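G., the chain you wanted modeled:
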Amino acid sequence: MMYDTYDGDQVNVHIATSTDFGASISSDVIAYSFAPLALLAATGSSTSNREFGDYQYLTSTGDTFYGAFAGLGDVNAGGINTTALIDPYFISGSETVPEPSTLLLILGALLSFGFFRHRMH
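Predicted structure as tokens:
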């Protein structure tokens, strides 16, 4: 999962993992932290509350996850100064996710049901 926290000074972008469908968190890493811009500087408006918009996305293919989120810019290798802009950041990583035992339990129940139903006929 990916989520943001704000403590009044810093925005923290978290990447967290759970092996029990979110009942507990097995790891929680702060992937990126920054002090946000003033609302007027970030949005060009003093009444908007959508500094970051809906720019957070996380998906996976196999054991590799890919994500995108909005963060405060920086000077990149090409020398373009984006320190006053909210920019997209892209991340990726790998996390081995064990097969949930509940799926094996359901599969076993379905096989048993089919076996006993077949024997009754």
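The chain has one domain: 2-120.

Shout if anything looks off.
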